[in-house]
Amino acid sequence: MKWTLVRYRAKPDQADENQRLSAVVFDELKEKAPAGLRYAVFRLPDDTFVHIAMSEEGAPALSSFESFRAFQKDVRERCAEPPQPAEPAIVGNYGMLA
What we know:
Blueprint: E1 2-10, H1 15-32, E2 37-43, E3 48-55, H2 66-73, H3 75-78, E4 79-86
Antiparallel strand pairs: 1-3, 1-4, 2-3
């Protein structure tokens, strides 16, 4: 199982568009229901976005979805602080993660 966490801050005038593009990704994921893939996006009050993805071996990559590629296309132009990807280690979990 692989975990990925990406954090960035959107430009104030681009944060709503960033959220809209993220919502389109969730529409496609709900439609296609890919097995072995979990994904969440959080928006903080300062327009920081945190994406968390978990994929099991053999699961499709987020980048294989058209809506995610459209989201990524201009993400750097929407950012005040660029995306910072990391592979987090789970320290503790109580009912939050499967």
